[in-house]
Amino acid sequence: MKRLVLITLLLVITSIYAQGQKDVILQIDNEQVTLEEFKRIYFKNNKDSALTRESLEEYLELFINFKLKVYEAKALDLHKQDKFVKELATYRQQLVKPYLTDSATDEQLIREAYERMKYIVRAKHILFKVPQKAKPADTLKIYNQAKEVLAKLKNGADFENMAKKHSMDPSVRYNNGDLGYFSAFKMVYPFENAAFSLDEGEISDLVRTNFGYHIIKVTDRLPAPGTVEAAHIMIRLPQSATPEQAKAAKLRIEELYNKLEAGANFADVARKHSEDPQTAKKGGQLPKFTPGRMLPNFEEKIFSQQEGTYSEPFRTKVGWHIVKLISKQPTEPLAKIRPQIKRKLSKTARANLSRKKVVQRLKMEYNLQCNKKVMNELVAAINNDSLINKKWHLDQEINTDEVLCTFADDAKLKVGELAQYIKKRAKQSKEDAEQFISSQKENYVNNKIIEYEKAHLEEKYPDFAWLMKEYHDGILLFNITDSVVWKKAVKDTAGLKAYYEDHKNEYMWDKRMQAEIIEVSPSYKLRKTQRIIKKHYKKGSKDQIESHLQNTYEDTTINVIFDSGIYEKGTNKYVDATNWETGLHLAEELDNKQIFIYNDKILEPQPKAFSDIKGLVTADYQNYLEQKWIASLREKYEVEVHKELLDKLLN
Fold it and tell me: Which of 113, 188, 236, 347 has the CA that lies 20 to 30 A from 85?
C-alpha cells in the first residue's frame, strides 16, 4: 500500500533546485507539479484573501486532491476519449482568437466604427456589377465604362439621370440610386469608408467592393438619432395602382390626417384605419430601429419630426403614410457598447484587416522565404483551361516534393501540396490562370502560417499554455467527478437510502408545534367569538364554527379560514407569541378581522422524512463519496509534497 510522504527538508532536492531546475512542490508517482503551477492557481482563486502560511497549507491540501483526481482521469485514459478531445479543441478554438488578431488594429476599428455611429449619411450610388469570377479583360471593360460615367458626373451631369441610365442596382427603378440614411455597419466596409470620407454634395472616385464598382454621392449628413421608436398610419397603394386607386388612397390618408388635426388619438386612428396589419393592432407602433432599416423617404420624414409630433401625409413605394416620432435613444457610450461593436466587427470584412496584420507580422517573424523559380514552374505546368472545365491536369510533370516556401526554421511547404490545394479550388474559378494561381498561393501560405502559429502558441506564450492546462485539467476533473461522484450518487438509490438510514439522526427536526391559524372576518365581540371557537373547535370543524358565528351574530357574511401547519420556533410569529402553550389563543385583532391560533400539540424532535430532504441527502452523499474517493486515491498513489517551498511564496 502506497502512502502519503510529507517531505519538509531534503538537502539533495534543494541542491538540485539550486542548479536551476524547476521547483517541484508535488509529485504523484512519476508526475511532477511545479511550484509555479500551484502559485498561479492559488493566486487566481484567492485574489482577495490574505497570504498566510496557514492559507497556503490549506489550499495545498485542496490542490493535492485536485491533482490526484486529474492524475486518476489520465490513468483511466479519459484524456484520450473523443468527447474530451473534441471539447478541449472547441475551447482552444475560442481561446486562440486573441492571439491571432492585432489588438492595435482592432482598437482602431472599434473607435472608427463608434465615431461613425454618431452620424448618419445619406448617399446615392451608381453600381457597375463585376461578376465574382470575372476575367481581367471583362473587369477592365466594366472599369472603363464606370470611368466614362464618372467623368460625365464630374463635368456636371445629373446624378439621378445617370443612375437611372447606367446603374445595375435593381433598386434603382424605384429609388433613382438613393440609398437613404445609414450609419456604420449598414454597408460593406469599402463603401462605408468612401461615404464617410465625402463631404455633402461630393462625388467619389470609383469604389471597388465585392459587388463591383460604385460611384457614390453624399447628399446629407446628420447627427445619428440612435435607436428610434416611431409609429405610422398607412394606406396601401401598389406601384401598379390605377389613377382611380391612387386618388382614392390619397383622399383616404387626407381624411385620417384631418381626424388627427381635429384631436383624434394617433394610436386609435392607427388601430381602426391603418392598412399595415402588423402595426395597426399595436396602435401603429413600429419595432425600434436604427437608420438604414426603413425606406429612405420614410426615414427622412421620421428624422425630421420632433418627439411626440406627426408628419403630413407622404408617399413611398408601398403607399401613403403619416409617421409619428415617439422617441430617440442617442448612441450609448463606447464603454457600454464596445462588446456589441466587437461582435459586429468579427462578422464583417473588417475582421480580415486584423488577420492580415497578424499574417504580415508572422511572415517577418518567421522569415518566410519562397522560391520564385519553383512557383513559375508550377504556373507553367498548370493547364489554363483545366482551371474552368473541371478536368484538372498539368501540361508537364513537376517535382511535388520540391520546397516552395520555408519559414520558422522547420516549416516547409512543398509545391505538390499547393498544387493539390489549387486543384480543389480550380472548378470555382473563371479568373486568369496566373492571377488565380497567385491568389491561391497567397491564401495557402497565409493559412499555413496561421496554422503553424496556432500549433505553437503554447511554446510562444506561457500564459496561453497555462490557460490551456487549466481547461485540460478542468474538463478532466469535471468528467471523472461526474462519473465517480455526481452520477453515482443519483443512480445508486440503494446506497443513497442506506446513507440516509446511517445518518438520519443528522437530519433532525427541532421541537415543533402542530397548530391551526383561524381567521374570522368581519370582527365581532372578541371574548364571545373566542368562546364559540373554543367550544366547537375540533379538527375539520370550520363549517360548524362558521355556522355558529353566523347564527350568533345574525350575519351570513361571516367567513372563517383555517390554516393548519407544523411550525418550528422562529418560523411563525403567532405560534412564537403563545410561548408554545397548547390551546386557543388570540393572535391578532385587526379592524376587519380577528386571528386566533390553536396549538394542538408539541411534536418532539425526530428525523426528517427521506422524501422531504432527498436533495440535501444526495448532496451529502456526494460529499461522502468524494471524501471516500480522495482517501482511496491517496492510498493508491505515492504522493510527495515539498511544503518548505511555500516559504518562497511568503518571502
Answer: 347
Q: Please give the C-alpha separations between residue 324 and each of 78, 231, 250, 260, 591, in angstroms, as whole numbers.
A: 63, 5, 18, 11, 52
The runs of H, that is alpha helices, within 383-536 are 415-426, 433-455, 457-460, 462-481, 487-491, 493-503, 526-536
3-state secondary structure of 75: helix
- The last residue of one of the domains, among 457, 484, 501, is 457
Structure-block grid coordinates of residue 267: 394610436
Cell of 170: 435593381
More confident of the two residues 11 and 344: 344
- Crossing angle of helices 462-481 and 82-95, in 10° steps, is 150
pTM beyond 0.85: no
Task: Tell me the β-bridge partners of 405.
Answer: 370, 413
Partner residues linked to 641 by β-bridges: 6, 26
Q: What is the pLDDT of residues 110-123, one digit of tens each?
A: 999 999 999 999 99
Radius of gyration of the chain (CA): 40
Residue of 213, 133, 64 whose CA lies nearest to 638: 64
> Distance between CA atoms of 464 and 397, rounded to whole angstroms?
44
Per the structure, the complete domain to which residue 216 belongs is given by 119-223
* Cα 343 from chain centroid (whole Å): 9
Q: In what order do the strands lie in the sheet with 314-316?
A: 227-236, 319-329, 314-316
Cα 166 from chain centroid?
Answer: 44
CA-CA distance, 630 to 626, in Å (whole number)?
Answer: 6
**Domain check: are 185 and 280 in the same one?**
no
User: Which pLDDT belongs to residue 15?
Assistant: 39
pLDDT at 136: 81
Instruction: Please list the residues that pair with 218 across neighbouring strands.
Output: 123
Of 204, 194, 198, residue with least CA distance to 153: 204
Distance CA 103, CA 363 (A): 18
For the residues 283-296, what does the mean pLDDT come to?
89
Asked whether the beta carbons of 119 and 184 are under 8 A apart, the reply is no
- pLDDT score for 394: 80
Query: What pLDDT does 32 receive?
Result: 96
Which pLDDT does position 205 carry in this prediction?
97
Structural domain total, the chain: 4
pLDDT digit string (tens) for 469-488? 999 999 999 999 999 999 99
Asked, for residue 475, whether it belongs to a domain, the answer is no
Antiparallel, parallel or unpaired: β 639-642 and 4-7: parallel
The answer to whether 379 and 386 are in contact (CB under 8 A) is no
> Looking at per-residue confidence, does 520 or 591 come out higher?
520
- What residue type is assigned to position 103 of the chain? S
The reply to whether 150 and 177 lie within a common domain is: yes
> Rounded CA gap, 254 and 259, in Å?
9
Condensed to tens digits (0 to 9), the pLDDT of residues 233-274 reads: 999 998 889 999 999 999 999 999 999 999 999 999 999 999
Q: 271 and 180 in one domain?
A: no
